[in-house]
Amino acid sequence: MEWLVASPKKADNTFSAIRMGFQANMLVEMELTDSFGNTTHISFTGQQKNPAIASSHFSFSAPKGVDVVSGD
After folding, report:
1. Which of 23, 45, 52, 72 has the most CB atoms within 10 Å of its CB?
2. Is 9 inside any structural domain?
């Protein structure tokens, strides 16, 4: 696993460090360390890269009073 480490630019942040673990260019694990030194581990499993998703899973209704501009 390859790790990418991110740290805040300012000291007064909620997190002191975030580590992101990648395998085969996919995010599989995150470690978040808060300003109190507590660490949260998050694992991502069962991911599929670019799965086919039916268009019926998506719908959009413009809010009342909004102009919708077509890109056609």
Report:
1. 23
2. yes
Give the model confidence (pLDDT) of 25-40 as tens digits.
Answer: 999 999 999 989 999 9
- Output DSSP code: residue 21: E
Is 26 within 8 Å of 49 (Cβ atoms)? yes
More confident residue, 3 or 48: 3
Torsion of CA 31, 40, 50, 52, to 10 degrees: 170
Mean confidence (pLDDT) of the chain: 91
CB–CB of 43/28 below 8 Å?
yes
What total number of domains does the chain contain?
Answer: 1
Amino acid (1-letter code) at residue 43: S
